[in-house]
Amino acid sequence: MPHTSNLLRLQRTIQIHGKRAYHDHVILPNRKSVVSNGPPGYSAVTGHVVTVFGCTGFLGRYLVSKLARQGTQVIIPYRDEDEKRHLKPMGDLGQIVPMEWDIRNENQIAECVRHSDIVFNLVGRDYETKNFDFRSVHADGAERIARIAAQSGVPRLVHVSHLNASATSKSKFYQTKAEGEELVKAAFDGATIIRPGPLYGYEDKLLNNMAIWPIWWKLNNAKTKTRPVHVMDVAQVLANLVSSPQLARTLALPGPSTLTYEYLLDLVQSLTFQPPSRAPVIPKPVAMVVAKAAQLPWWPLLSPDEVERRYVDDADTPGDWDLVGVTPSEIEQHAITYVRRYRSAENFNRPNVFPPRPAVSSRLPFCMNLIN
């Protein structure tokens, strides 16, 4: 009998949530009517169709997951068949729609955005190749997506840039990010520009890299200032934009605290119970020579532009988190989740040990007792 009662309660809940109400009906800026229906969660139907360029990347996978679990149909453009396989189970049947594309093929881009209510452009490269330099991806490619989205009548475009985007930066990566922002705003009226700080998470190139190759984070004596932000926080911001009013502006999303690479190295070593790295501090000219030699193999290694970025402090820009309804997390709250794998077997379950924070590093109140 209790089992039957639970089934009846579940059926009644589904029936109640399955009914359509006035608030389920949304009129988009292009006058398209969107009606949500079905039970809440994975099997819901929000009525929205979203295209996520760069969905196979670090940030993209978490955005697709958050959108799909809300019942949004997600178009996932891909280049390599194997790179998008992990995205398919993130949504219910028919909610994840893979489409092959090339950033230089305008017909494929148009096909990917033709039914979408909002387009996210998360495409980016950390290093240059013989086929794609920074400008072709961050500037030309971004402009092409924005222009075709506008021509296709897409109501909204969200372009993800970087906190340090600047036309006067010594880094080509940051220069082309800034150039791409201007081209996107010229091609798509009312575009939303997102500027997140350095991201950390399971597949990041920050904490994981520090645990494996700490020597390359000692450049500039590890004094470079950084404002790392949790990838899940940024993904949540992007997911919130689907149902929020259009924000035709630039949103800065830095981490809640300004830290140094020195502190982050200490944090990783403390959490993994590894001895301090004895690697020397390499002078910048030597690091540049090594980075140029590292371009000979076909697989990605340290690039000269990455060396340049190790000497660039993150922009001291106020965050716009209050506009998007998300409170960013401190890195100490999540770091152990991502670096525990680097502990030895005998230390795997030991209590966490945190290094003392520099007195000037915190931008938001931080309590180590809450973390411990």
From TrEMBL:
Keywords: Ubiquinone. GO terms for cellular component: mitochondrion. One of its GO terms (molecular function) is protein-containing complex binding. It comes from the Eukaryota. Residues 54-245 form the NAD(P)-binding domain. Pfam families: NAD_binding_10 (PF13460). InterPro entries: ComplexI_NDUFA9_subunit, NAD(P)-bd_dom, NAD(P)-bd_dom_sf. This is 39kDa subunit of Ndufa9, NADH ubiquinone oxidoreductase. It comes from Dendrothele bispora (strain CBS 962.96). The lineage of its organism: Eukaryota, Fungi, Dikarya, Basidiomycota, Agaricomycotina.
